[in-house]
TrEMBL record:
It comes from Frankia torreyi. It comes from the Bacteria. InterPro entries: Epimerase_deHydtase, NAD(P)-bd_dom_sf. This is Nucleoside-diphosphate-sugar epimerase. Residues 6-207 form the NAD-dependent epimerase/dehydratase domain. Gene3D superfamilies: NAD(P)-binding Rossmann-like Domain.
Length: 330
């Protein structure tokens, strides 16, 4: 039985904890509040993960340290670097394998599918924060001080997942109301189910081929419009469709302009932070996860479970995630 330390109790961190505990391993889940699932195999610890000495103490004897936490979305430049530094220091001091949960921000705008060998070229503040975290970890890996890898995920979907889509669109669509979303509603965009991201984190942490490079979690490319149609279908009763009901289920979507988003951001600092990331939604943004799927025998991404979970979950839970510990909008 191995010990694994997970920092952050967002949807992906919790899903990862359950997978490891189900496999018979011991999990130490670290958050500021000590919250998380209460079940055998998972130890909940309240601690400040930016305290490198305390985190080292908690990680001593662990096989893996998973970095699944993110500060409040509007405070990344101030709060993410000390958190990343403490995680890296704890992994170096203890010898635990360091598995980072990342995203696509570091790539910047890309034409065509994004593969892991593409150099990071961020154009935003948050993108530069994420890129610096990976460059620091990779430098430590090349210096022989740590074994590090990063699993980069597309926008999250699933129950408890916090993303721009789950915040702005899913609750409205499920309530039968019009929904506004920034960007091109018909551009292909990759989406990742948190359960599949967790499976990728676990599989990659157990394979020596993983260290020293990044990997893309399995995902599915769909436009916001098509994703919304799939969500409506997932929430519909299992009855025979008619032309009338099929037409009634077409989600009503409108494009939220950059000016409208900026105006909303003037009254809310978290919303204001979304403006610089609009390039992700104004053009196709497709994450190629072929290498991960083939190397670790992981199935391609599937949204069926994610959408069913989203449809069954409380549609009012999205807003809290932008400020909660261990969570970040994607």
């Amino acid at each position: 039985m191995s010990l694994h330390v997970i920092v952050g109790a967002g949807a992906t961190g919790i899903a990862t904890a359950h997978l490891l505990a189900d496999a018979g391993d011991q999990v130490r889940l670290v958050t500021r509040s000590g919250r998380g699932p209460r079940r055998p195999g998972i130890e909940l610890v309240a601690a400040d993960a930016t305290d490198a000495d305390r985190l080292t103490e908690l990680t001593t004897g662990a096989r893996t340290l998973f970095g699944c936490a993110a500060p409040a979305y509007d405070r990344w430049p101030a709060l993410f670097p000390p958190l990343a530094a403490a995680l890296l220091a704890a992994a170096e001091r203890t010898g635990a394998g360091y598995v980072m949960l990342g995203n696509t921000y570091g790539y910047g705008p890309v034409d065509g599918p994004i593969t892991e060998d593409r150099p990071l070229a961020p154009i935003t503040v948050k993108g530069r924060v994420r890129a610096a975290m990976w460059h620091d970890a990779l430098a430590a890996h090349h210096a022989g001080r740590v074994r590090a890898t990063e699993v980069r995920a597309a926008d999250f979907l699933g129950a408890g997942a916090y993303s721009l889509y789950n915040l702005l669109v899913a609750p409205k669509i499920l309530a039968g109301a019009p929904a506004a979303f920034p960007g091109d509603l018909d551009a292909a965009h990759s989406w990742a189910y948190v359960g599949e991201v967790a499976r990728a984190l676990v599989a990659i942490s157990r394979d020596d081929r993983a260290w020293g490079r990044s990997w893309h979690a399995p995902s599915v490319p769909l436009s916001v419009r098509e994703l919304s149609r799939r969500l409506v279908a997932a929430s519909a009763p299992d009855t025979a469709d008619t032309a009338d009901t099929a037409e009634a289920r077409e989600p009503e979507l409108v494009r939220l302009t950059a000016a409208e988003l900026a105006a909303a951001g003037a009254a809310d600092p978290v919303t204001a932070e979304v403006v610089e990331m609009l390039y992700l939604y104004e053009r196709p943004c497709v994450l190629d996860s072929t290498s991960t799927e083939q190397t670790f025998a992981l199935p391609p991404g599937s949204l069926d479970v994610a959408l069913a979970e989203t449809a069954a979950a409380d549609p009012g839970n999205g807003r809290a995630g932008l400020r909660g510990e261990g969570r970040t909008v994607r």
